[in-house]
Design goal:
It is a single chain. The protein is α+β, with helices and mostly antiparallel strands and 113 residues long. Helix 2 packs antiparallel against helix 3. The two termini are 17 Å apart. 25% of the residues are buried.
């Protein structure tokens, strides 16, 4: 049985979030959360929230045990890009892109034996 959690429209670049997500793929839940706790990136806090949410979904909705869970799939997709304009010299403009991400975590219970 697997449980899923998603954080959509998170205001961080997908490229920056993927660097953090790659650290915890296929890790036990406790190990993944301790890695995220000591990772000095802003994305680590956001990813940790989604991992905790997926674990809570597994416990409450599917009666899975916290100690047996591991991160089966975790990935970051691109969300919409907010576009803002800054004035520049001689009446020109400069486009500022503010990317967003969708973070998805799937946890599964590890089979014994």
């Amino acid at each position: 049985m697997e449980a899923k959690a998603q954080a959509r429209f998170v205001r961080i670049s997908p490229r920056k979030a993927r660097a953090v997500v790659d650290l915890v793929r296929h890790k036990n839940l406790d190990e993944a959360l301790s890695i995220l706790r000591y990772t000095p990136h802003r994305a680590a806090r956001l990813v940790a929230k989604v991992v905790n949410s997926a674990a809570a979904n597994a416990e409450n909705n599917y009666d899975l045990r916290w100690g047996n869970l591991y991160v089966e799939r975790i990935y970051v997709d691109e969300g919409p890009v907010f576009k803002r304009v800054r004035p520049r010299a001689r009446g020109r403009r400069y486009l500022i892109r503010k990317p967003t991400s969708h973070i998805t975590v799937v946890v599964r219970e590890r089979r014994e034996g």
